Amino acid sequence: MSVTTKTENTRSFTIAPIIPTDKDVVIKFLLKFFFRDEPLNISMELMKEKDHLLGHIECHYTKLMDNGLAFKAVSPNGDIVGIVLNSLTVRNDNNEEKIEDENGPDDNTKFKTIGTFLDKVEREADVFTKYPNVDRLIDIKIISVDESCRGQGICKALIDKTK
Fold first, then answer.
1. Which of 12, 16, 46, 145 can bridge 41 by disulfide, Cβ–Cβ 3.0-4.6 Å?
2. CA atoms of 13 and 72, how far apart (whole Å)
3. Phi/psi at 114 (nearest 5 deg)?
4. What tens digit of pLDDT does each residue of 35-72 get?
5. Mean pLDDT throughout 8-12?
6. What angle do CA 111, 70, 110 make, to 5 degrees?
């Protein structure tokens, strides 16, 4: 089900699930906006290794597009102007993804460094211990908005749809 939102600037966009045919466009979007603008990616200079970056996205991020928890913001002319990729974490789920386990021996150490850092933050946050009545949570893994469309409520609409 799609939700159409009109922003204060009278530009409208639609929020809809990401579907399998969106994969290539979403990957291009990630390269153009998320991996270029995200502070950890900038500090690790990931865009300097664009070929390896593409392989990493295809290997590790496409599964987030297929889990039913990924959404896109689409402009009236059909362009994707924002995306959110989410994952579901369940209490006592032994299926936790660790970047060290996912990556092969030839995988990029810059990704391992970022993944190890994010895994440590998640472990130390220890949400299920802090909130004993919570049995599952949605984790926003990636959220990004087209640079030319920022400040129009797209990110908020993607988060609202995630809720």
1. 46
2. 10
3. -65, -45
4. 888 888 888 887 777 777 777 777 778 889 989 999 99
5. 59
6. 5
E strands present in the chain: 3-6, 12-17, 70-74, 80-90, 136-145
> Could you give the percent of the chain with pLDDT greater than 90?
51
Cα torsion at 48, 34, 98, 130 (round to 10°)?
140
What are the structure tokens assigned to 132, written together?
A: 């004993």
CB neighbour class for 141 (10 Å; exposed up to 12, middle 13-18, buried from 19):
middle
Distance (Å, whole) CA 118 – CA 87: 14
**How far is residue 51 CA from its own chain's centroid?**
19
Domains of the chain: 3-162 (3.40.630.30)
Question: pLDDT (tens digit, 9 = 90+) per residue, 15-26?
Answer: 999 999 999 999
**Verdict on whether the full-model pTM lies above 0.70:** yes
